[in-house]
Automatic annotation (TrEMBL):
PANTHER family referenced in this protein's UniProt entry, alphabetically: 1,2-PHENYLACETYL-COA EPOXIDASE, SUBUNIT A (PTHR30458:SF2), PHENYLACETIC ACID DEGRADATION PROTEIN PAA (PTHR30458)
GO cellular component term, pick one: cytosol
One BP term from GO: phenylacetate catabolic process
Superkingdom per UniProt: Bacteria
Protein name per its UniProtKB record: Ring-1,2-phenylacetyl-CoA epoxidase subunit PaaA
Pfam family, any one: PaaA_PaaC
Gene3D superfamilies referenced in this protein's UniProt entry, alphabetically: 1.20.1260.10
Length: 356
């Protein structure tokens, strides 16, 4: 019994989100196999019009293609925030590696945290194709000029929190990220294929933890319910502010960087979670949660967007702790980066000697 095995009411096929990832991967391969119908732009071409035609035709913008500066900046901001979130997101669960209840749980959690580090590296690499270096991106994070997901500024108080992060936090991430597999920027779309496949397993791991707790002792079920109560609304806030208050959403959708609005994705997440919570035997903490026949979706209580803004501004429960830990890790790891750079330089010198 796992999270993605329970489709939303409008997903009668049961293919779910992983099916969408596979379809997006197939579409990427098909696009790579065919040439653009426009060919390369001529020297005197209207580049803005050419760019618009590529986007409209649902083809990919690649690193060597001309792109508007605003498009490039938007991608750097979004991909960097995504990469930073993967790296910072290692902390809440990493806190439980040494306290996992069994060797099996410890090994699984260790592998999951390692996966998140890998996701960060994929995404930093995708951002670098836009002409910004990884060192610059890290500096922007450490100096507070770039952000990461607000959800990672909440504490993990019990082992059940690890399960809820897998089910709700990774579940919200999957709902948000699966459409990015069809992003108009090729390197980002291709990175998201692998990220989403691995995140699906992360969600299943968290769901399985909660299933065991919810069907265990009364104390274990209470611990699981408490974790759901604390993480539900911060998870809803992961999709960002309402559409009317979103600064970047409309333009990102016009450029096909994202395919659905914040509110559309949030609704899909709620519809998905209701059925999953029923199987778990846990209750989502919303007295107004009910099916709406007219809309074909669940009505629900919105998260506290004022709290979201405060967390984004650095006033969440763990903002300072997360950034202090990240800065300390970066400083402590300086010798590793220096050794790697020295080794790479030595290898390059050896190649030059052989070539000479």
């Amino acid at each position: 019994m796992y999270g993605n095995d329970f489709p939303a009411p409008d997903d009668a096929s049961g293919g779910g989100l992983l099916g969408e990832v596979e379809a997006a991967e197939a579409a990427l391969r098909e696009a790579a196999a065919r040439a653009r119908r426009f060919g390369a732009p001529t020297p005197d071409a209207d580049l803005d019009a050419y760019f618009a035609d590529v986007i409209e035709a649902d083809q990919k913008i690649e690193p060597r293609d001309w792109m508007p500066e605003a498009y490039r900046r938007t991608l750097i901001r979004q991909i960097a925030q995504h990469a930073h979130s993967e790296i910072i997101g290692m902390q809440p669960e990493g806190n439980w590696i040494s306290r996992a209840p069994s060797l099996k749980r410890k090994a699984i959690l260790l592998a999951k945290v390692q996966d998140e580090a890998g996701h960060g590296l994929y995404l930093y690499a995708a951002a670098e194709t836009l002409g910004i270096s990884r060192d610059e991106l890290v500096d922007l994070l450490l100096s507070g000029r770039q952000k990461y997901s607000s959800i990672f500024n909440y504490p993990t108080l019990t082992w059940a929190d690890v399960g809820v992060i897998g089910w709700l936090v990774d579940g919200a991430a999957i709902v948000n990220q699966v459409p990015l597999c069809r992003c108009s920027y090729g390197p980002y779309a291709r990175a998201m294929i692998r990220v989403c496949k691995e995140e699906s397993f992360h969600q299943r791991q968290g769901y399985e933890i909660l299933h065991v707790l919810a069907h265990g002792t009364a104390e274990q079920k209470a611990m699981a319910q408490d974790a759901v109560d604390r993480w539900w609304y911060p998870s809803l806030a992961m999709f960002g502010p309402p559409d009317g208050d979103s600064t970047h959403s409309a333009q990102s959708m016009a450029w096909k960087i994202k395919r659905f609005s914040n509110d559309e994705l949030r609704q899909r997440f709620v519809d998905m979670c209701v059925q999953q919570a029923e199987v778990l035997g846990l209750t989502l903490p919303d007295e107004d949660l009910r099916w709406n026949d007219e809309r074909g979706a669940y009505d629900y209580t919105q998260p506290d967007y004022d709290e979201l803004m405060q967390v984004i501004k650095g006033n969440g429960p763990c903002n300072r702790q997360r950034m202090e830990h990240r800065r300390r890790a970066h400083t402590d790891g300086a010798w590793v980066r220096e050794a790697a750079a020295a080794y790479a330089a030595k290898r390059e010198q050896q190649k030059e000697k052989v070539a000479a």
